[in-house]
Amino acid sequence: MLRDIFYRLKPLIPRSVQIGIRRQLIEWQRRQVADIWPIDPNPATPPEGWTGWPDGADFALILTHDVEKPIGQSRCLALAELERERGFRSSFNFVPERYTDNPDLRRRLDAMGFEVGVHGLNHDGKLYSSREEFMRRAVRINQYIADWGARGFRSPAMHHNLEWLGSLDCDYDASTFDTDPFEPQPDGMGTIFPFLVPRADGRAPYIELPYTLPQDFTLFVLMGEPTPATWKSKLDWLAARGGMVLLNVHPDYMHFGDGRPGIEEYSASIYAELLDYVVTAYSGRYWHALPRDLATFWRAEFAVQTTGGLARRGCVTPWASLW
Ligand SMILES: [Zn+2]
Questions:
Q1: pTM over cut 0.85
Q2: How far is the CA of 93 from the centre of ligand 1 (A)?
Q3: DSSP labels for 127-188?
């Protein structure tokens, strides 16, 4: 109830006060959900018929970024370089109509081996206000997916309706999570693996990629954690269960260089420390892929089963019975 009141009053409150209130709230919330966050012990079962990750890897590692505003855009190359130095590649999801599109930046990321995806349309909180509104915006989103050569989509604020999302022309969606009770639409997907989602219009299913490490904003801005300890322990847990480590970090909140991070920022060195940890602790034991390559792999792995009956391998969800 406290949270409802907060979200109703939110537009009237200065940003710094909002952050202060959310910090207080989240301390209280965190104690309430300790049994399901950051680890929900239930969704560790692999899908039926699972034969394992490519190259015999123990687990998969996928890095993604949502670029919220121009400040985030200006930090994309620094973030890409931080990853490339350590042998990693990632996807950057841009909002088509919130800030000025930068085709040159998209081309540079592509040339460096990174992926570009679409993050909502305007990021105004209204994409899911009604089915009609979603479908109206889906036409424009599909145009950006085609123009940018994108293969993936993620909704702002992790809003999701898996049936509606099926009308987008993408191979995968990444608007969900295994467990994250701090999101406005807090229903976890109950799995640490990708899954196929059938489309109402009969086209081939798309792949849903839930994130499995907590969001940076939650851990470092709201909870004020000074190290990547929570990320590391969840990663260890996912690795031991052979799952998918999928992370979403935002260049907007990352502070590069000297000086103190701002009120909505954390030091990029925390993220670098996580990547260094993976490289040293799990050398040769993970399959690192772009989300589009994971989607391709998953489709090939489970395609044979989707013709005979969607509820079989790879469809680990109850969604298939919804429409
Ligand atoms: Zn966003």
A1: yes
A2: 9
A3: TTS-HHHHHHHHHHHHHHHHHHT--EEE-GGG---HHHHTTS--SEE---BS--TTSSS---
